User: What shape does this take?
Amino acid sequence: MKVKYILLIVLSFVLMPLFWSCKDDKPKGIEKEIILPKFELSNKFVNILVDKSEIVDIKQGEGDYKAFSLNDNIAKAEITDNKVKITGLSSGETAIIVSDKQSRYLQIKVISYYDKITADKEALDLQMRLGETKTETIKILKGNNGYVVTSENEDIATVTINNSTISVTGKKSGETKLTLKDAKGLEKTFTVKVATTTIPYTEKELEEIKAQIATCYIFNNDNPFKHGYEHTDIEYYNTVEEGMNFYGWAFYEDHYLKIKFSGDKNIGKKENALLSYYFWDSWNTYEDQPANFEIVKNDGILIWAIYSFVADDKLNYGYFIQKINP
Assistant: This one.
């Protein structure tokens, strides 16, 4: 037994130097550090005009570069020969993301902008009936959003804006200027001319009236059927009273339109025309109001007539289509 223990002790002394010798031997190159080149761009921020391009150089990296835009409606990017070409597409802010084959990513902030505002019109001419208003629009084609628009004289024309559409409403005759500003402080001015007329209908509107064939009476955009009256409750006038032609209609005595004029029923302007209008729910009541009266069409069966007058700084107007004779 003692001999066994003595042999173990001897072996331990013999093997121990060998163990330490093995521990100190290191395979060459296993722990060598790998150093990658930096990933670096020449610029991380770009201001760019819409429809123009800027170049950002890739100064260092591992190759296999790729780039994409976070909003390709505002700007796009493409890579050629270690260069990032950025093109502005519309006004706004976005970022271009550039990567290399080590899956490292860098960001280029982009502001794309216009250097002037353009629109589909440079001026407006508003033609409207006296006492009415008329609204037309201007479409902004290019600009940097955040628009604010003002009118130099709101008694002549007022203005509102919704996104890129400007709505201009003429109020009275005159000329004024609109000033439009965008988010970058660019300005554009528009001239607005407003003219009023006492001519009740344009040539186009007259042609549309003469194309109708149904019996009707219109006055200031009012007519008997607008109020839901039954045909059987409406009395139509088509006669001669005291030597004057008498046309019109009445819903009892609560609502009526009566028109009288002298002369024949041929095409042309007529003398001594009088118009009476009453509606129990309206303050616009007229009794034997002198009016301009003209027959614009006569086909042998029907006549088409227009009428108008000015009262309280407003043009009142209308037309009727009725049989020539009772």
In short: The first helix runs from residue 2 to 24. The longest strand covers residues 187-197.
